[in-house]
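tool_call: predict_structure(chain=1)
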Amino acid sequence: MTGIRAGKKWYQLQWYRSSDSPRQRQFINKIDLLIVPYAFLSYWVKYIDQANLNNAYVAGMKEDLGFMGNELIQLQTFYIVGAVVGQIPFMFLFTYLPMHWVIPGLDIAWGIFTLLQYRTASFAELAAYRFLVGWFEAAYFPGMHYIFGAWYRGDEIGRRGGVFYIGLSLGTLTAGLIQAGASHNLEGVNGLAGWRWMYIICALITIPVGILGYFILPGTPDKPNTYFLTEEDIAVARDRLKNDGHHIENENVTWRTLKKVALSWHFWVLIAFDFFFWNSGTSSIGGFLLWLKSLNRFSKARINELGSIAPALGIFYTLLTCFASDLILGPAWAITFIHTFHMLGNIILTVWDVPEAAKWFAFALSYCSVAMSSVLYGWVNTQLKGSPAQRAFILVLINTTSQASTAWTYLLTFPTVEAPRFPKGYPYAIGNSVALIITAHGLRLWLKRKE
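tool_result:
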């Protein structure tokens, strides 16, 4: 229950339910310390390794590799294709494999291919590395949400997911600062350009975080990591989830699961919901950095420093949206609230011929689009709590299909040669935000009627 639905004022919000026993609260604290910090760290390094392409591009990669056209958006598409293809086997594997082995193993693998990007000598070589980074990063996001849904009740996921999700904004911010530092201090050291040093530094951060996960991540209640969890902890977890209506027994994805999902209209609505979310986003296309570069006013290091403003603000947007969803507004209204601001920024960028200060304001709002991600996936987790198999399959599939759509929609709407204005891209994002809000309230009304 959210704060309003529980009959509390906003200043009476609490971290636990009033009905949680002292032992349950002790367990919640323990599982918070095992999941949330690692989720944050690993998502932070994931987005350092994903976002660093845009930073490298404006810091000399374009000139060093002889890029002349749409290479940036094409490299982003190779990453997306890898991320889509890489998710497909995990629609089945999440319920079969221990998650405390899966997530850290993928983390280490994408760290290795992040490192290899420092030696790239051509577009084709870099495209192959970006595809493999995408492939190994693919299952991370739905996998972490599968873990959240395995340990937390529906009213607990959003704010934990919010702390986890600020790793996206902080990772993008950090990538910019790492590139700024590399351009300023390491340019030409040992014969390597600053953007090549950035990939080395990113890998040195990523791989140790993956190793840490083997010890920290608790897995799931049916396949737990007992390095820190006791049998009593697992029993408490099972009891409290069972009392909240969760199906906690092991349930693997089978062909019967696929048939049941495919025949459910609810599933198709969730796909549309996630499609509108992914296609409303503008933060990943590097529009802010490309605009700063087009001003011909700043050095490479300064461009990356200034480009960190938007993801820094994204940390605030994410925490505000996720805590408001769990404790005050509920998912649909939290999504409406934050995407109203996102649409405002995109309307300004669609008009374009506005004072420069208005463009700074508009780009500062770009991370509003992703701030509600943990609200969306937490809400899906809650709606599917009765079946671990369906939850695993649907979480991966909606993420896969929606991300796959951006492989071609972004090529059409955000071609690099139209940067930084993107006359088709920003109106397209506005349309998807409107559809996202309508779908959210349609789901809200249906769930209210169902309850």
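agent: The longest helix spans residues 22-64. Proceeding to next step.
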